[in-house]
Specification:
This protein is α+β, with helices and mostly antiparallel strands. Helices cover 40% and strands 29% of the residues. It contains 7 helices and 7 strands, in the order αββααβββααββαα.
Length: 203
């Protein structure tokens, strides 16, 4: 057991081992870093919101899971975890334990989501000649995938600024976003939109 503990302590991934009754009997420090909360030896790994996760399935059904992604909410935001789990059997084939490996793939997941968004946006741009409808479709993809709310302003042929899309992740607040845009147009020279138009640089 000491040798096993020494090995998993050096791994750059979270490793947790349970007994047949779902109690954690061995884990490394990386588990708590990835999980984002304290994890105690002897505790039941099952908790609210984790029903049917890979480690539970490994113990209950003998299922082997590779790289299943699950989201957990923490104080610093939503984390995306990649979890692999497998049962450990005795000489008679009975499940006596299970092992899980956890990795925090939040950044990778967000990057993949951004790439999917860009690919879909490109499809919309190619498929439609109606640019206003295309922008509206792209905005619906972007909210809430990339932003809580989104307002798109364009310059017309006379260099007059007008908005063509205003959306909020909460549909009930979309109308509020539109009303605020009408009441407070970005006309001041210090407004971020005016600064971008003047400098040509993003903020």
């Amino acid at each position: 057991l000491a040798q096993l503990q020494a090995v998993i302590a050096q791994l750059p991934l979270g490793v947790a081992i349970t007994d047949a009754d779902h109690h954690i009997v061995l884990l490394n420090d990386e588990v708590e870093r990835v999980w984002g909360e304290p994890v105690a030896l002897g505790s039941d790994h099952r908790g609210p919101g984790t029903e049917g996760w890979p480690l539970e399935r490994a113990l209950e059904t003998g299922e082997v899971t590779i790289g299943e992604r699950r989201n957990v909410e923490r104080d610093d935001g939503t984390r995306t975890l990649e979890i692999s789990a497998a049962p450990v059997r005795d000489a008679d084939g009975a499940i006596v334990s299970a092992v899980a490996i956890l990795a925090d793939v939040t950044r990778r997941s967000r990057a993949e989501e951004n790439l999917r968004f860009l690919a879909k946006a490109n499809e919309l741009l190619v498929a439609s000649l109606d640019w206003e409808r295309t922008l509206a479709a792209i905005a619906e993809l972007a909210v809430p995938a990339l932003a809580g709310y989104l307002v798109i302003d364009l310059l017309d042929d006379e260099d007059e600024l007008h908005w063509v899309v205003a959306l909020h992740a909460d549909p009930e607040k979309t109308e509020l976003v539109r009303e605020l845009r009408v009441q407070y147009p970005p006309t001041a020279s210090t407004h971020p939109i005016q600064v971008v138009l003047r400098t040509g640089q993003p903020l």
